[in-house]
Design goal:
The structure is a single chain. The protein is α+β, with helices and mostly antiparallel strands. The model has no long low-confidence stretch (mean pLDDT about 95). The chain is globular, with a radius of gyration of 17 Å. It has a 5-stranded antiparallel beta sheet with strand order 1-2-3-5-4, with helices on one face. The chain starts with 5 loop residues before the first helix and ends with a helix. The protein has helices at about 5-10, 55-75, 125-140, and strands spanning about 20, 25-30, 40-45, 80-85, 100-105. A hairpin with a 3-residue loop joins strand 1 and strand 2. It has one domain: HIT-like (HIT family, subunit A), CATH 3.30.428.10. The structure holds adenosine monophosphate (AMP). The site of adenosine monophosphate has 11 residues, from loops.
């Protein structure tokens, strides 16, 4: 029998959490190491490791909950915006192998960076863009 993920243990009440929301398929709770006050994680209760592993309907359900949670977080901590992010795989920085969507409040006066500044960037020609787009289309 495989071991439960830490987030399954949270869902089961075996590890305490600051619960924000729960329904049959999803669970939301405060991140224990918040990047900002109100930083919340939204997860499917089923321990899918990556977003790509999840059935499309469940992805829709998690994002639907995340939208509601984002509004509630913004209202609760008076934040004008939130960054929503998934580290999808170990090389992307995923530490917990159970899908989780970060909802992170952003404030006007903080020095947090937009998520695209985390990447080096890629300088691609039109031909390279078209070739990559075609390769992605062909892999769908
Ligand atoms: P990631 O790097 O995207 O896998 O993020 C994992 C997140 O889970 C980190 O932000 C951690 O702070 C958070 N985390 C780990 N353990 C707990 C826990 N027991 N309760 C709440 N958040 C946790």
């Amino acid at each position: 029998m495989s071991e439960k993920t830490i987030f399954e243990q949270i869902v089961a009440g075996e590890i305490p959490s600051y619960t924000i929301y729960e329904d049959e398929q999803t669970y939301a709770f405060l991140d224990a190491n918040p990047l900002a006050p109100g930083h919340t994680l939204v997860i499917p209760k089923e321990p899918y490791e990556r977003l790509n592993d999840m059935p499309p309907e469940l992805i829709g359900t998690v994002f639907s909950v995340a939208g509601e949670v984002a509004s509630a977080v913004e209202a609760a901590v008076d934040a004008p915006a939130t960054t929503l992010a998934i580290n999808n795989g170990e090389e992307a920085g995923q530490e917990v192998p159970h899908v989780h969507l970060h909802v992170i409040p952003q404030f006007e006066d903080d020095d947090s960076r937009p998520i695209h500044t985390l990447f080096r960037g890629a300088d691609l020609s039109d031909e390279e863009m078209e070739e990559i787009a075609a390769r992605i289309r062909n892999n769908q």
